[in-house]
Amino acid sequence: MTYRVPTALLFFLVSFAGCATAPSPAASNEESPGPVPAAARRIDDPTADAWAHFLMAQTHAQAGRFREAVSELRESLRSDARSPSLWMQLAQWLARLDDPDEALTAARKAVDLAPDLPAARLVLAELLRSQKKFVEAEAELEQVIQSNPLSADTYLMLARFQVEQKAYDRARTVLQRLLTQYPDLPQAHFLLGRLAIEMEKWDEAIQRLQRAVQLDADHDGAWTALGYAYEAQHQPEKAIEVYRQALAANPENIAFLERLSDLLIRLGRFQEAQVQIERLAEEAPRDPRVMMKLGAVYYEQKQWDKAIEAFRRVVLLEPTNVRARYFLATTYMDAGKEAEARQELERILRADPKSIDARVQLGFLHGRAKRYDQAVEILKEAANLDPKRPELFLYLGTAHFRAQQYDLAASTIEEGLTLDPKNKDLQFQLGVVFEKQAKFDDAVRAFRRVITLDPKNAEAYNYIGYMYAEKGTNLEEAITLISKAIEFDPNNGYFIDSLGWAFYQQGRYADALRELKRAIEKAKADPVIFDHLGDAYLKNGFEEEAAAAWEQSLSLDPSVDAVRKKLEDSRERLRRVKNDRSKASQ
User: Fold this and answer.
1) By three-state DSSP, how is residue 3 classified?
2) Which of 411, 339, 352 is nearest to 380 (CA)?
3) pTM here?
4) 370-383, pLDDT tens digit by residue?
């Protein structure tokens, strides 16, 4: 995966450099309208009228009334027209009022009055930049640098302008010029590192960012960028170490906790992630995002009660958060709390009657409870709401299948395939339906299409192989196909059962018994596998073991008469053998 930093993010990071002398129009603070102009401080022209208008302008600006502020400032300029600071302030307020031409005129006036005043040129440069007049803006900044080559902020501002134009090489050159003046300036190393990330020069990025944090352990941006660079280079362990070091240096910065926990989640290291997110929750107990992550981590570890509690807290904090209710409902489902799950899903549907996901989950809930007709109806509603989503036809077709409506299942799945002919899940389920309808050849073709679409689909290999084994045909191919499935999933007890059954059908009873014993160890208790094992024991001359296996099969599924008949016959044979031995011993 290729990671790229959005340019907008880079602008934001570069803008941390700021401009210590003159805030930009876009960055001016409502409560802090700007530096006090010379008219407020000069002792050579203490004009009372200018002073009064200036104070009134400041009062208006602090209240956010910039039109009134501009009007008062113009009155002040009538008495003090040669104050560059007043013109600078006027330029900034005019920019806030979205009057760029007048703002530019005012800024140029400030520069004309004080060509050697860096602050005036910086204000003019920022206004030129806001109008995309980058050449003129950069010329103003170069003038400042020429008159004051030690002005670090001006270099940083110039680099920011060039980044905005995506002139990364020029920005690098400016920052390198800055480093000749200040070789140990952390911000310069940081910004060069960010530029290297944007240009995908990862080694340089890591080197620069490492230097930045060495120089300033409190530089949060540099720590974050360094961790990101390691993530982008698929070096997660180094990224984890960086975030841990960042937390050691800045334990109050919960953003590092968040990045560390997110990375651990992506790596599937949920227990470690849980530790970090629980710390995060202590710092921000009312942050719904944190609670959502905590719930997700508990969910992944099947800690249902804790996950439920976390998601419920999100819902309490944000009652309209449908996503949180959805996760709460699915957690209730997995915890086996059907009534609570259904209640949450119905709440979602009341809030959002067109919620497809809530309908799908409610359909699954009905299906799990074997309320197949209700499952079919609600999944039909979901498919009708968005008839272009193939997976909805998969869910609906599966509901028909479980309701034993095989013709409807097949037609529904085929409708989904008209939307997405390469959908392997739809193809697979169609094969399952065909097999149930005893359409052997159609089923095989469907599963072979799955393998064409997904050559590593172990289930499809096994399904064809087991069908052949059950039918007692193409047994060599059956063994080859099932062996392929086991290659992909060596510990799958059901695949091993298929192989054992194919051996049995081929007359290789010793091989069959070996594999079926392995299948019992790998798979959960399954009546079919115990039935197969009983058959294999019998063929290998182990009557008592065969009877025990069939007894186990019947205990798991008492409805299979064929297994009951085998067990009865076996017990009869064992009874006869016992009687014969008894007679022989007399």
Assistant:
1) coil
2) 411
3) 0.68
4) 999 999 999 999 99
